[in-house]
Each structure stands twice: as C-alpha cells, then as structure tokens.
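Hey Z.,

So I finally got round to the pyridoxal-5'-phosphate thing we talked about over coffee. Here's the setup:
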Amino acid sequence: MAQPNQIYMDYSSYCPIEPRVLKEMLPYYERYFGNPSSPHSFGVQMKAGLEAAREKVASLINAEKPSEVIFTSGSTESINAALRGAAFRNKEKGNRIIASSIEHISVRNTLKYLAKNGFEVVYLPVDEYGVVSVESLKGAMNERTVLVTVMYANNEVGTVEPIKEIADIAHEKNAILHTDATAAIGKMPIDVNRDGIDMMSISSGDMYGPYGIGALYLRRGTRFEPLILGGGQEAGFRSGTENVAGAVGMGKAAEIAKAEMAQEAERLSKIRDRIIKGTKEAITYSFLNGHPTLRLPNNINMRFSFIEGESLVLSLDMEGIAASSGSACSSKTLEPSHVLLAMGIPHEEAQGSLLLSLGRWNTPQDAQKLLEVLPNIVRGLREMSPIAPPGVR
Amino acid sequence: MAQPNQIYMDYSSYCPIEPRVLKEMLPYYERYFGNPSSPHSFGVQMKAGLEAAREKVASLINAEKPSEVIFTSGSTESINAALRGAAFRNKEKGNRIIASSIEHISVRNTLKYLAKNGFEVVYLPVDEYGVVSVESLKGAMNERTVLVTVMYANNEVGTVEPIKEIADIAHEKNAILHTDATAAIGKMPIDVNRDGIDMMSISSGDMYGPYGIGALYLRRGTRFEPLILGGGQEAGFRSGTENVAGAVGMGKAAEIAKAEMAQEAERLSKIRDRIIKGTKEAITYSFLNGHPTLRLPNNINMRFSFIEGESLVLSLDMEGIAASSGSACSSKTLEPSHVLLAMGIPHEEAQGSLLLSLGRWNTPQDAQKLLEVLPNIVRGLREMSPIAPPGVR
Amino acid sequence: MGMYTEKVMDHFRHPRNVGEIKDADGIGKVGNPVCGDLMWIYIKVKGDRLEDVKFKTFGCGAAIATSSMITEMAKGKTIDEALKISRQDVADALGGLPAIKMHCSNLASDGLKSAILDYMKRNGIKPPEGIKIESEHEDVCETG
Amino acid sequence: MGMYTEKVMDHFRHPRNVGEIKDADGIGKVGNPVCGDLMWIYIKVKGDRLEDVKFKTFGCGAAIATSSMITEMAKGKTIDEALKISRQDVADALGGLPAIKMHCSNLASDGLKSAILDYMKRNGIKPPEGIKIESEHEDVCETG
Ligand SMILES: Cc1ncc(COP(=O)(O)O)c(C=O)c1O
Ligand SMILES: Cc1ncc(COP(=O)(O)O)c(C=O)c1O
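And the result:
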C-alpha cells in the first residue's frame, strides 16, 4: 500500500485495511442494502451479514454467545460505554474503581470523568517493565470496588498484563473486570472465558478491519447501562442504525486473525527481535522499553538518551520509514508518555523514545533498512544535542 | 441495486450508498492509510481527506467554519452527545428542556435519561398535521430553559417544522437550539445561520453516504461537553481514531446533495404527489398523514382504516415493494407510532399506516406499479378484517 | 420477509378458511385493535366435533398466519382435543414464530377456546376446569 | 511531514550553523529537556554586530528548525536589531509553524536574547529597558 520505497512501522497508530476484508465488505456497499431491522426482504441479507459478523468476532475471543458481542464505533466508544455503564449501573455496590497507571488516554479520561462524578479511582503502579502490580491490586480491592480495568497489553511498550490473575482478584470481591484489548486483539490469543473477562473493548481497525467500527464484549449477566440511547439496536445496548458493511469487515478481520494469528505472531516477533538486538548493538545508550519477553509480537519501543523523539520520527520519515514516538511533541497534550513515566523512566529519557509497531506488510528487509539508517540519524541528532556528553554518538 | 423486479420505497429506514460516494471512499481503503494525527507523511493524506470532507459537510449546511462540524458515528450518537452535552454543561443556568412530542426515539430516550438525572423535560404538542405548536413553546419557555430540541422534519410523516421561529423563541431566553435534521438533510436546503441553529445532528447514511458516520454541528461558542472521551480527536469534542474513509464518503454525499438537491426534490415530489393522489382516489377510507404541503419531498405516509400496517408491508413485499409501517408490530417496542398518536390519530387507525419513502432510484414507473397493486392488497386485508364495515373494501 | 418461516408466509399468502360462518355455533373474539390485533374465530359443531372453523383477523402477518393455522388444526377435532391446542402448538405447527411475536400476535388458540366456550355457554354445557383465556378483552396491550 | 512547511523541513534537514563557538562572547541557554526542548545559542560579537551565531538543540523538528533559522537571521545584524527578533518573526521566516508548536518549540528568539544578555553582562553593558525572557530556566513546561 505504501509507495515502494516507503516502510510503514506505525501499525499501532493506524492499521491499513486487509484487501480480503475490503472484498467482503464491498457487496454491502454495492449490492445489499436495507435496514437490518426492517421486516421486508431487503433487510434480511443485511441482518444475516450483521449476525454472521457477530459470530466471527465472538469466535475470535471465544465468547459463549454471539449476543455477548455488541458492535460500537470503535474502542474509544466501547471503553467509554463499558466504564461508565458498569460504574453507574452498579453504584449501589460502591464507588471504587481500580485501574492501572498505564491505561490508554481513552480509559484515563473516562476515569477522570467518573472521578468528577462521585467515583474514587485508584491507580495501580507498574514495575520497570510496565507489568501491573498484582500485589497492589490485592491491597486496593475492597467490598465497595465495582470495577477493575487493566489493559490486556499496552499499546506503547507492548507489555502483556496478567489479566487472568487480575480477573480472579477482582472477582473475589465481585467486581467487574474490564480490559482494553485494543492493542492485543488479533495479535495474541484472547479467550474471555479462560481469562475471566467480563467486559472487553476492541476495535476493528487495529486488526486490519475498517475504522469506525469496534465491539464491546459484555458477558451475559453483567450489569451495565448503555451509553448511546435510541432505537434499541444491538439488543438495546447500543442504539443507532447498524454499520453493517463495517461490521462485516470486522467479522472478516476477526476470521482472518483467528486463522493466521499464530503464524503471523511468530513471523513478526522474529523481525521485532532482530530490530531490538540490532539497535542495541549499533547504538550506545539505547534501551528497550517494556518487557523483554511478555511482549506483543509486533511492538518495539526503544529509547535513546540525549535526543528527542519527534525529531527522530521526522528523520526516519525523511528516509521513508513511518514510526511513532513517546515524546511530548508528538502528543496532543504535550506531555511525554505517561506509560514511560509510570515505568520510572525520567522525563528527558522518555522524550527520546521511538515506537516501531510492525504488521502484515513488514518484511525482514524492512528491519535491514531500518538498521541501516537509524544509527546515522541518532548520531546526527546527538551531534546537535547540548546534553550529549562529548564523544557519545 | 435492488433486483430488477423489486422496488425500494423505504429510503428513510436505510439508504443505499451512492456509487459516486463509494468511488471517493475506496482510495482511503485501498491506497491511503495512516493516522491523521501522525506527524509522518502517511498521515498527511488522511488528514487532508478528513478536512476536505469536513469542509464539504460544512458547506452543505452553510456553517461558518468547518471546525463547527464534528464527525461522529451517526445521528444517534450526535443526538445523545448534543442533548447530554448541552444539558450537563449548562446546568447552572437551569434544568428545563423543551422538546416536541414527535421526536425520534433517540431523542426521546436521551430525554428520558436526562429526566432521570435531574432535568425537567416539557413536551410540546403538535397539530393534526404534526406541526409543533409555537404558541405552546412560548408558554413553556422560562429563564431556566437550557435547551430546546425540535426536529427539522419528521421522519415518519414528513412534516417540516418552523425551526427558524422556534430558534428565535429559544434564543430570547438564551436557550440552546438543537435540531435533529436526520430526515431533512440532503432533502431540503438547511442553513444553520439563516435558521438560527446552535446544534444539529445529521447522519451520512440518510444522504446516500455510508452508515457508521455522522456529524454534530456545534456552533462556535456553544457550551457543550463531549460524550466520548479519549485521545482528543475532533478538537476534543469526540475522541477515537477517525473513520477517515467514512468521513470522506459523507463529504462526497454532502457535495452531491448540495449540487443536486433542488432538482431531485422536484423530481421526487412529483412521484410523491402522484402516489398520494392515486391512492386516495383508488382506496376509500385512505388518508394522508402529515402536512399536505410542508412536507419532505420524498415522504408519503397514508393510513387505511380497518387494516394493520405490518400485514400491508408484508403484502407489498410479496409484490416486490419494500416499505415501512407505523404499526406496533413493526416497532421494537410494540407500540404504534407515537408521532401518529401525538397528531391525534386513534390507536387502531395508527396501526394501519403505511410509510413510503422515496429516493434516488425511484421512477414514475414505481409509482405506477405501486398504484396497481396497493388497492388489491388493501381490499384483501379488509375482506379478512373483522372491523371493516360490510361493503368497504 | 426473513423474520417469518416459509410456513408462516404460506399461511399469510394463502390464508385458509377466511370469513364468517353465518349460523356459527360459537364465536370467539380476542385481541384489541388498539393493540394491533383482533381475531374472530367462528365454529360450527357437529356432535362433539368441530365441523367447520373460520376466522376474520385484523393484525400483522403472524396474527393472520396463526389464525389460518388454527382453523386447519382445529377442523375435524373433538371439542376436548381442540381445547388442548396451545399457543406453542400453533407456533410449532408454523415452524416457529419470532420471539417478539410469540405473545403479541399469537392469539389464535385463545380465539378458538373463546369460540368453544361461547358454544358451551349457548348450550348450557359446563366448561372443563382450568380453561382460562388470558387475552380475552384485554385492557393493556401485551408486549413481547 | 505535512505538519511543517517546506522551509521548516529544509532547516530541519540541513540545519545551518550547528555546533559550539569555543570562545563565544555570549551563550544563551533556554528550555528544559524535561519539557522536550533545550536550546543553546552561542554568539561571537564584533563591534556592535553579531559576527557569528551557532546553536545546539535537543528538541523536536520545530525546535531544530527555529534554532537554525535564528542563526541565519541574526548573523551580521547589530545587537539592537537582533534583540528585536520575535518568536513571530522566526515563525514567519519559516513560512509558519503549527499552532501547537508556536510556543512550546519556538524558543530560538529567546535563546538569542539570552545569549546577548550574557554578552552584555560579561561586558558590563546595561541591557535596554523591557527585555524579558520568559522561557529562560522555565520550571513548568509550556503547552500549546
Ligand atoms: C429523525 C431521525 N433521527 C435520528 C435517527 C437516528 O439515526 P441513526 O440510526 O443513523 O443513528 C433517525 C434514523 O432513522 C431518524 O429518522
Ligand atoms: C490501547 C488502546 N486503547 C484504546 C484505543 C482507542 O481506539 P480507537 O481510537 O480505535 O477508538 C487505542 C488506540 O490506538 C489503543 O491503542
């Protein structure tokens, strides 16, 4: 999809759609139409497409019933709906919510809203690798805890969290366990039953489906109130005329992920490890952020002392390589990554982070190309940097 | 799009996508990708596409600035966001909200939620044609009124409301005027400045764009708080990775609507009037619901005494004509249309309503075909009906 | 119409036994047009058997199909047998009904019972214990 | 990188006057690496003119480009002229900066002023009235 000389290593920011997914969607743009709720024959094909898609998403996460999958407009909406819906619906039980300190900003901002509206939000620390402290969760749980939310894997540093353990602790006190699996979905096997997940937010875009559609897994019996009210679509859990083409795309993306995930994870983790190793070898004062092994197969997050991340991303872009950084300048809030800070990385070091996220169209040659250009870029920026000790390049 | 022998007259339930719209979207699936917020070159084309689309939507409604257009996942979300966002953000001013009694269920259910959360909701009556009583609005307004919401045109009976007059009355007491323009957008000229609209909810699907995308018009300076929190996309008014392909589709749909609306309205209103006249002539005890002239160009809503609407829709479907009804059996709530009831039509008469909504692919031949089969269908159902007086067919 | 089975559609398309029986031995009237469903079932009794059954119905596809189906099911049955036909039996004979229609538009067995009770009343026959018609002269519309 | 003008990209790609001046007459240090931007501006003064200007910068693309641009703008100017270069002037010379960068990464004019003040201090020259460097030794990171 990129131009031939361009390399895309920013899949966690935006994932291109997979051509097989688009192919599955097109009939719902070109041929079928009708409201899935309509009783006439035009609506029938639409309803069938929608429900088949739901089954595929349910199957990817091993949900017991397809009806536990609610289509939304994406992870951000799912997260807002899950956290607010579970908190408000269960407020007689208590007002404590527990979250990790490395959640995505959509979780953080929803929790801020809840904190302003009578809930007490407790943030759990993480260790230097970004692993949530299970001990502090145990300490933070009480009878008034309604909700625990910890991401399945972190989108910046790739660290995979011990969700099953966390779920067990939450359930001991009858709290609901929500997990933001946006970064993990399609990249590693998720089983809502094995993992004890009550609610899970996922998006289609992050698994090579279209953007504008996502899902909330809502375990049967979970007490929840909907965020978006209206005509009662999605069994009343999420109103609005259904985005059938989108759902069909997400379904196909889920089907492909299920079939190919294991093989693809193996392939990508090899490229990942090569980049990590090669970078460390070639560049002094370079460090891996996140866990060395409990890590998403497609995530590389390195920091380089004495330089700043945006200029690094900009320089890579000039070489035809698209990446992200954890620097303040690359974020809308102009704050460096709260994830890196929570892991104890100092501010100025956090500014120098580079996030490379791999995906379906990356090859070992891409790693090669990256390793050819990165050391020079770092050297150039360090030469310009007032804080690089003399001689460090 | 339909099979050759099928006629679709249910555009208000679901509108097929216009091929020119799909064509515009495809490059954003097949060629361009990247996060519009990313600082690298992959994101640039996406950002450009998104902003060009915003300008097209702004131009259709004559918004002063493109930034007053916020992309959402559809009308239902826009409505939820607008009503909740304006109500909660302005609650120091007061707690009264005024709405018409014929609003769409997404407005009704959001208002129910607000009523449960401390707001006092006043519903305005409508006359026999479904026109909102401006007099009762005047009576209902007070200093504590924060929000007035009246739809631009009604989706069931097609009646166009006097929004400008309503806005003026709302503004006298510094209340915010929201209008649900889902049914009207692209069918008649809407000018947010001329009409004095502060907030407006529209969807892409209802103007031949893709579903899963819509917009909220938010006049600069309107006090509002966002419904969906997260990464701060859409200037912080609506978070979540942008559905660029969808937005591009909506933009193109808006552009086409702007260029072709006048001509298309004229074409459709001729077909509409022919059907209304032909039906009244051919079938006794048949009546037009809604206003004879202040009416959407594509809306026909007739009622037939002594028979029920779903069976009518079912019979039409057997003849290859897709339509809707205002009957209880066709709604998720099993209640007959609240719109018809608000207009003073008795329950059993409301059950016998037929909604035909026309669109781009309807022709005068479709009207011909409908007028050929409808009288026989009504006759057959009346013969079966225990409440049809002897001899009425 | 994907919401209905082929069997339902067949009975909707070609409803059996539509009409009145002028000199009916019993008439059952259930439902309420305000709620969108009204069924009148006419029966003609010979000995202890239903010799003829007809209906008139105002209602949705399910209402018409169940009415038609009950006339077929009941015709030729003894009164005792006919009284035993339940809503579920009618739905089953039609290959199932959408969940939302199971209660609201599935009044046909009630209509038949009502017609039989009318016949019994006219003829001074004491109805068997436990026969109850919930939907007769309903004041509140049933949902789902 | 669509967020930056061609001019910004040119200065980022080919930064002018990078490095230290070993025997500088004045050095200005502004920004804070904690905030993601740190600029050191070196000046060499001859008479009342800036004979040479160099920089070292830790920061984003805008920070590097503005640093580079200020060295070009200031070189050869009199001290009075150089003191008048504003943030806006630098941004304008670069064909504009993204709104979000106008404050956070546009420290170069401050850096230059700071270097001139350092030169004046070393030489016992009284700085003109009203010269203030807001960003010097900032404690709180500026945003947007
Ligand atoms: C008048 C009106 N408002 C709101 C909506 C909700 O729109 P959507 O289902 O696209 O979110 C509809 C849907 O048809 C409508 O007709
Ligand atoms: C971990 C995580 N959660 C939530 C989101 C929000 O997803 P979306 O922007 O698709 O709504 C993202 C987006 O990248 C993410 O990485």
